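Reposting from the mailing list since nobody answered there.

I have sequence plus structure tokens for a pair of proteins and want to know whether others read the tokens the same way I do. The first protein:
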Amino acid sequence: MSSTPSSSAIRIDRIDTDGTDLECTITCTDDLRRFFGGEPFRVSYDVSIEDVPEGVLAIPVLSQVCPVAWATGADVYVPEVDETFAHALGDVEETLLSLYPEFMEGGTLYAGETIDVEPDLESGDGETPSDSGLLFTGGVDSTCSYIRHREEEPTLISIRGWTISPSAAHDDRWDDLQSRVQNFADERDLESQFVESNMLSFLDHPMLLAHFKRFVDGGWYSSVGHGVGLLGLCAPMAHARGMENLYVAATHWDGIDLEWGSRPDIDDHVRWAGTQCHHDAYDLTRQERLDVIADYVREHSPELQLQTCNDRMDGNCGHCEKCYRTAVGLRLSGLEPTDHGYPFSETNYHDLRRSLENGEWILGEDERYMWEDIRNRVRETEPESAAEREFFSWLETADLGELVDESEPPLSHRALRAGARNTPHGVYTTLYPAWNAAKNASRRLGL
């Protein structure tokens, strides 16, 4: 980090709390205005944060703006911040700079005061505090992490704002997720917490993509921001609840080196007074995580339901790539998919192969690694039917690299992004609605 102030800057101006709600306003230099949506940053919790120190209240917004600052060489100014988290940001910055040397420039955090916050010894409701928390969706990864840490009786934390938008159009999806997580928690006598934020509309995600998509494999938040971003959102709630450990389940595993914003060398650095974050189950492949789940099902929870669908939140459609992949993985771990939320029969093996061969799904490197993981297990497994034998035989020799979509973005998308990158902010602000409409139209037309 440079010790000389940058001409580009982001300032945290105001942090307000109202019961369970947090709101922050920022200002920034003109060159950075395009990266922010123009609305205050907001988070809502299920626990009062009125007594949380301001140095901890600053963590959620800093977790969103600092990666943007590092990508643009900007400095960040905040009146007060928890000293432990300030050091954590330096460690996370070092990882992102090494991960994305093509565009990450770094910056300096200037705090009016760094404070050594004392952890809460009592939860916000006066009851015994929760010693640990787990970001939880009910999918394979987070369910495996729950099983690994169930002796700690972790509070299950679900977040709205990334894969489920805070817009009214996603209310049903959020209701479905809350219902499933709450039922899972109730059946195991666990606490739950639900967090809602506007972090993606607070950031101008399309503009971040316009500038940096050419350097990352996915979206800005998935490739850069979501590790520190999601964990940082939890800081006021974790402080109020007295959480010493906060777990986030790994998506990838040791040996997979993909551009992804949640990794051990990011998440394990995130910490604040009284709380250490952990990137969990990185030592297990996805199939091995399903083995952990299978053992738990056989010993403790025969009716366990998983939720991984890309298309639905009120159950699994059974026909998207992720549903098929999970169903096959469950079978390889000795479970019947239909018992755990996935309609699946022998005829689906034929449909699955046809869809993969015909390129009906846009698959990335993540999916290639996951199908390779399944293939490794297939080579150790005796098929139980002719249909399974035929699919396993095909999978053993299939060129999984050919299933990955490595095509360049359509020329129209590249032109739109280039135009957005090179447009002065004042002009961009006027033209953005038209630019966004054109982008969406080109997507609908398949351009």
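The second protein, same order (residues first, tokens after):
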Amino acid sequence: MSGKLSAINLIKDSLTRQQFIKSQTVKADTLNQIALTLATPGARSADLNEAINYIMEGLHIYSKFRDSTGLRETFDHLALVYHLQKKYVQAKWFYIQSNSLSRDMRDTLNIIHSLLNLSAVKTDIKDYPMAQRDLRDALSLAGTIPGIDLQVEVQNSIARFYTKKGNADKAAAALYRIAFLTDSVSQAKQMALNQQQQKAKELADKQKQLILQQKQFTEQKLTKEKNGITTIAVMIIALLAVVCFIVLFKRKQ
């Protein structure tokens, strides 16, 4: 009996701890969300400093409870605020932490996003070769994910990179690539829609043909039945005529 009670108490303690951890990470999520409402382009310096305080408070909670996803998001948020403050060294450092954690988690989507953010910081400090390398890596990874959304996002970053660098031709090429990708998907969707419509039409035609064949079969069956009834009626009439003839013939005798 005491063993069962110990097991029950252990389960209760485990559930209580999970609920407590959840409540704390929700608190950290809320702190980060408050920070993001303050950290906007053109925000006052005081608001950006306050945003950092909120994010750091959340960071301690995520770290305490080993919430990897929360930590990664917090690194991104801190990097964002430092980027807005034009504190590029700090911004780059936190984006690198986000990238490293994303790689540890094998989170391709956020590896790409951290590379794009790193590229933006490096572009602002005119470290163009390294920014270009990050964009190239991001584009390569985006190609491994189905769909074009990430490729379009990377191409937009490439267009901004070349615009800031003053290379209008390459910026235009990136925008052309976006148009090409979008158009290709539109054509593929239209082709798929046409195929679906064609299959639907073929199915409808087959159903019409089956209905027509069934109707013809029914009509033929009814015709045969009518002909059969008519034949029987003629035979009956003929038989009656013979009977009548025989009866009349006997009477005359």
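Reply #1 (J.P.):
I read it the same way you do. The chain has one domain: 2-188.
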